[in-house]
Amino acid sequence: MEQIFLTLLNISITASWIVLAVVLLRFVLKKAPKWTICLLWAIVGLRLIMPFSLESVFSLLPDKEVIDPGTYQVQTGFDPIDNVVNSYLDTHSNPAASNPDAPAPSLPEPSTSTDPISVISQVWLAGVVLMALYSVGSWLLLRRRVAEAIPFKKGIYFCDRVDSAFILGVIRPRIYLPFNLSANQIEHIVCHEQAHLTRRDHLWKPLGFVLLSIYWFNPVMWLAYILLCRDIELACDEKAIRYMDTQTKQGYSETLLACSTSRRMITACPVAFGEVGIKGRIKSVADYKRPAFWVIVIALICCIAVAVCFLTDPAETPDVFDLTLADQEKDALVETYYTWRSNQQGVYYKLAWADFSDTAEKGPTYSGYRYYGTFGDCIVWFRGDVKGTATEVKIADSAFAHPCNADYYVNKDNTLYTLQQAYEQEMISAADVAKVAKNHADYNAAAAENPKAALMELPLTPEKEQHIKQVYLNQLTNPGSNTVDNLPLRVISNYNGVCAVWIGKSSVTMNMETTLLLKKPSVEGKFTGSYVFTFPDSEKFRIYTNDRIYGIETAYEEGILTPEHVELLLEGNRYLHKNSFPDDWKS
Amino acid sequence: MNEIRMGMAESRFADIIWQHEPMTTKDLVAACSEVLQWKRTTTYTVLKRLCERGIFQMQDSVVTSLISKDEFYALQSQRFVDDVFNGSLPAFLAAFTAHKKLSEQEVAEILRQIDRIGKE
Fold it and tell me: If one looks up domain B8-69 in CATH, what number appears?
């Protein structure tokens, strides 16, 4: 039930914005026919009813839900309010969260005792029940009163003990008139009430009251309902006097005056004559002019604009999978990572940021960096391999299907943190972590579907690896002290039976770079550029196929290493992945 | 007895009884249903109420009146003059004729009535 209440709370807050816009428009569109204003109220009603909504870029609604039904976190956009409310909610609604060392309760915490959200939800429900009882009660009372009504004309009845004329009934609505009316007055009132019937106000008003009963906790909704009732009456007056001559209109005003009651109650059922806003109505009747065509058009345009702006949710701001991090920002991230990693593990090879794209040709990348989004001033990104055995990691109650070496990092103020640290230090909220997890899961799913992933048959069996090592050793003129058992090997790719591997110990330090160029296939005889490999030590990067080991250039020239395979190796600098360096590489 | 009043709807109901009495309740219900579109329960409710006020009575499912229609409206008129004109009929007549001229026929009729009263 708390979920329902919080969802309704969020809906009513967004609806409040629309109400304020409508109030403003009412003022601006004073010359417009009132039925257009009623359309605007219909839009408010739609928003309150619709559980889902469309997205559009024209939405004027604020981005986030004010209160998250899942985590009870409040995001009003005003930090002081958020902090106060959230800390209160945290300590009161989940005692275990604020004291992680406390032993877990053996029974589930009863949510009724101290949870403020729970209490508020129950108060809300009680309010709804009260409103419902009031409606039903007053309807029943009224029904009793009109039991003794006398028929006058079809659908019109006279009744003792009623102060003013009204309509009762939803399916078969009837007009009830008090007895002490002159013939003239009867004519005017019946005209008005029948206009109500034609406009189906006897349906809209109770519907509005139902919505009010549900959203009773929001004072803006009460304002909306009161204004709605007024606008309904005004629209109805306009419809009634539309074809009246001046004399009849005068009589109508007099009838309005004569029949005005002093009752100010907000009622649900009867659409009564003379209850609401008499002064304003008399004035409107007197001032009534057939509205110009263009006024109607403008009013309708306003309605459509309001619908588009407020019935649609803001388009998901692309804060995840946004592949447009500026180059300098990418470089800054890499720089920070490199510095951090070097401090942690000694000198480390600085990888370049790969150019990610999820296009059909390239498919998702397999290694390298990936930008996950900017939350506030924290940039979340990911560095690692997507393939491999998935072990699950949990950060902030969000599960990350965590293939080997997938690392999540957060950059804030040029300092690097892991995602776990960032969450613990409250730089990133649990909701944001969940977003990252979800997008990574989506990404994994996409990668799994990608046909190219199937092309890489990894990992190799141990026997195969042993075999490759053996072949390598056999080809060495001087094996030295290397044996199959102590020879370091890292397999990078296995594509169509061709493996690219890092094999053997390096004899140079890691900082020596060698650049190697492989000419891309020519197009129409023209040179189109080269594939660029930047190796720390090109000698140890080998291509294996059919019981032979080749150097990369030879393999490429002889067509063993195809351009497609080369592209796979270059994607995200796959060939330079951290795992590509044997453990004892760094000497 | 002073509280013998009827609302407009009740008057219509009373008219039916006065017109057709004595009536069985069954017939009364049927008549009310047709003329007034009242439900059975409503007819019974109103009947009971008017019986309590001493206007009608019900015995063995037969409805009769305790006061005739003329008597009833005579009482009403008297009460009206009492309430509004302090019982002064001349005052009432003055008020009545302030905006409405009486025709010769009406004047003659009134004079005849006055004669009749004077002779009692």
Answer: 1.10.10.10
